[in-house]
Amino acid sequence: LLTGVSGTPQEKNISLASPTKVELTCKLDENSNLKNPQVTWKRGSETISHTIKTQNSWTIQVTISDSSHLGSYTCILKGEKEVSATFHLQVPKIEGKEKPVITYEGDIAVMVCKTEYKPKSWTWYMANGTELVPIDKILPKDKCKFKTPSANVARLEILKLTKADGGVYWCEAIFELGKSKARFELKVLSIVAPLKPFIAIVAEVAILVTTVVLCEVYSKRKAKGREKEFDQIERL
């Protein structure tokens, strides 16, 4: 990072699934106006020393043996101005579905999680208030199917949906360095839900037709009443 210097802090996410050693480098290009800066490396708010230095680059070597070594590592360069770059070391994120999964009673709901790296295992949960409960402890075995099309993909199918199946679900991938989750919201609609707009339109049309008919009947009665009045006047 910092090959081209600007006043905006730079950031980079680095996914790590298993223990490893990484080198993080901040480098200035030769044409940078920031000359002979004072360089500080920090892990969170803790200052750490860089292990390798050249004319325009500063590097730290980090051994990631467990989750406690993950986090944000920042290099800060101070000169005529101050610039910084941050490396976020984290377990791989899971690709889920941001929008709600919407389906109907009696249908099948399908939720899929993907990750770039191979996890040790996958687990599916359903939210029960603030608590996450493994799905196999809530739903019967014949109600759901767990599939892993590949090592980095997990798929959940919920069969014969009812209103009670609606709610929040989570998939969790377990890596050597920690866990990562993705959230799903399942909405189960009544089978008549798609017909509601049509029913509403039909009801409006029926009311309109009834109103027109009543108006016609009233008009005819009123017209007959006037005819009778005219007949009586002519007789008089």
Automatic annotation (TrEMBL):
Transmembrane spans: 198-218
Domain of life, source organism: Eukaryota
InterPro entries attached to this UniProt entry: CD47_Vset (IPR013270), Cell_adhesion_signaling (IPR051275), Ig-like_dom (IPR007110), Ig-like_dom_sf (IPR036179), Ig-like_fold (IPR013783), Ig_I-set (IPR013098), Ig_sub (IPR003599)
Subcellular location: Membrane
The entry's keywords: Disulfide bond, Glycoprotein, Immunoglobulin domain, Membrane, Transmembrane, Transmembrane helix
One term of GO molecular function: cell adhesion molecule binding
Topology class, membrane: Single-pass type I membrane protein
Protein's UniProt keywords contain Glycoprotein: yes
Domain Ig-like per the UniProt entry, residue ranges: 9-86, 92-190
A GO-annotated cellular component: cell-cell junction
A Gene Ontology biological process term: cell-cell adhesion
Gene3D superfamilies xrefs: Immunoglobulins
Name this polypeptide is given: EMB protein
Origin species: Bombycilla garrulus
